Each structure stands twice: as structure tokens, then as C-alpha cells.
Design the sequence.
């Protein structure tokens, strides 16, 4: 029997420091994505996986910060956490050591996913059946059904870390320059 689909929020405490008050008030199932033990100075900047109960969703809908993303899955919270933790560190061109990747940042998650080919997107999403962002009144939702068609459910990432290519980084830079240019043009026009 398939577990019902559950909605989780990945909330960035660095962008939404009131998360701790919300967690204390509503007591939803929640877990930090970083490994324990977590240093106190890191705890306040970490991403948290939170079951998005009605109260949590209502609370998040009132936020004006880029707090994070919603993900939907049939996986358990433990399985989802284990999957997501694989993407907290990535390799980028020009760096010998892994760097932190805030894949849960709603300001750029769609741009980043747009640089992935279908296989890489499928592997990155893993047990996630839907992704949704709510940012400054804009809602974007995708189940990626067309992109994921034909791939096995248990696909795994080759290697230990996700590696961004030079061309992916260049494409992301170009997208950010276009966005900034359009914002500056709006400001001065």
C-alpha cells in the first residue's frame, strides 16, 4: 500500500528566523537537515524539514521572506531527509572543496533546476513528486511528470556529490544578469 502524499516545507532559518517560535507554537514534526550535533551558531542558519500541517502552511503564507520551498512526497520524513541531505554540499568549477548549496532558496531553485537535463532532474528530485514555491505573491508548482517519464523510481546520483559544470554555472550567471538588468530597468524607467 502506498503511503499518502505528504507536504513538507524546507524552511531556511537564515531567511526566516521566526521558524523557532512557529515550531514551538505548533509542534509539527520537524528535523534539521544538517547532521547532529549542530553548533548553536549554525542552528540559527540551518535548513529545517517541517511537515507542512495546515497551521504551518497558514503561518508560511503570511511570511514576506524567501523562507524556502514546499515538497510533496510519498516517502517518510526520514527517507526524504536522507535524500535531501545529499544535496547540501556540491562541487562547482574552480573550487577544490565542496561548497554549501541552498537548493531550497525559492529565488533561484527554478533557474537551477532549469539547467539540469531530465535525468539529472529526476535523480535530484528522487522521492519528491511535486515542488512548489510561494514568493512575494507568486506561486510556482511543478510535478515534472514529462521530464521524469521513463526513468526508474530508484535512480541514484553517480558519485558522492552533485557537480555543477562550467556551462551550468555560466547559464545561471547569465540568468541572474538578465534578472538584475530587468529590475534595474524597471527602477529607472
Sequence:
Amino acid at each position: 500500500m502506498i503511503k499518502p502524499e505528504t507536504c513538507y516545507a524546507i524552511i531556511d532559518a537564515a531567511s526566516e528566523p521566526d521558524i523557532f517560535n512557529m515550531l514551538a507554537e505548533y509542534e509539527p514534526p520537524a528535523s534539521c537537515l544538517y547532521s547532529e550535533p549542530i553548533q548553536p551558531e549554525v542552528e540559527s542558519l540551518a535548513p529545517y524539514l517541517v511537515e507542512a500541517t495546515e497551521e504551518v502552511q497558514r503561518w508560511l503564507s503570511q511570511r514576506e521572506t524567501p523562507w524556502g520551498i514546499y515538497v510533496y512526497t510519498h516517502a517518510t520524513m526520514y527517507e526524504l531527509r536522507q535524500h535531501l541531505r545529499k544535496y547540501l554540499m556540491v562541487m562547482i568549477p574552480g573550487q577544490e572543496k565542496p561548497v554549501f548549496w541552498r537548493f531550497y532558496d525559492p529565488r533561484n531553485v527554478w533557474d537551477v533546476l532549469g539547467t539540469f537535463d531530465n535525468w539529472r532532474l529526476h535523480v535530484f528530485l528522487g522521492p519528491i513528486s511535486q515542488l512548489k514555491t510561494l514568493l512575494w505573491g507568486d506561486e510556482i508548482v511543478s510535478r515534472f511528470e514529462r521530464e521524469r517519464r521513463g526513468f526508474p523510481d530508484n535512480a541514484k546520483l553517480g558519485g558522492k556529490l552533485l557537480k555543477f559544470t562550467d556551462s551550468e554555472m555560466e547559464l545561471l550567471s547569465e540568468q541572474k544578469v538578465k534578472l538584475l538588468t530587468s529590475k534595474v530597468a524597471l527602477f529607472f524607467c
Residues 52 and 58 are 9 Å apart (CA to CA).
